[in-house]
Amino acid sequence: MTWKRRLNDVLVRATGYELRSARSAKRRRGAPRRPDGSSIATAGDRLVTAPAFILCTLRSGSTLLRVLLNSHSQLHSPQELHFRYVEVNLTAKWGERAMEELGLDARGLEYLLWDRILHRELAASGKQHLVCKTPNDVFIADRIAECWPDARFIFLLRHPAAILQSRQALGAKIDPEQNVELIQSYCEALETARRAFPGLTVRYEDLTADPAGVTREICEFLGVPWEPEMLDYGRFDHGRYRAGLGDWKEKIKSGEVQSAAPLPPPGEIPPGLREIATAWGYTSGDAAVLSSPLEVQQPS
Question: Residues 79-97: what's their mean pLDDT?
């Protein structure tokens, strides 16, 4: 008789509980799972309905868009949340088995935690809708859509060379070549998300040139009425400054939407960013491309 059989007999006599493997536990619970084995959200798993996410790169004007939307009476746009780095670790097999009995794995637990964080934020705000922005969300867009299948996406674009210049201006210690590689990785991840998921595409340049018009379109997309008070965002509390949680330079602190810097000429677009600049319509040589209507993106 094997040790497992002997242990099983002891358990049955002492407790009436029969030893089962983790695999049989999964079968017994019958929890819905994806082809890769990860758990699927079931009824009651999500407290937050249809959260919106601003997918963007670094230095793309996302803090400006965040404070404008956060100034709406129905929209709460919290500080950057960095869900990419919020993880759940099951540190022992007993924890794994316990969660498997509930139909959960580490990823499912992470999603419960993410949702609970958003619910806590929304409840504290007293508002009805969430609009989240963290630039590195572009690298987990698929996981966001997996966590909240009803999530809505706003894709915020800015001229790639302008993004590069804005970040380079942060300090002389930034290596120019590494800067290009970093911005390229963000831009490509953003374009991948635009092609994969439906959503609304807006441009930073349009936002600064016509904040009323652009925020009207975003409000329509989110299903809330536009409020002119949004443009006077300096009147509202948007949280305290902390490094790594948003851009609180003087332009943002001014409380007023300020014009974007002139677009870099084509000759200043590094080779690594030319393809994405073209894909986003920034190399046509036609200034009218930046005043085109906002587009609702459908996955290709």
Answer: 93
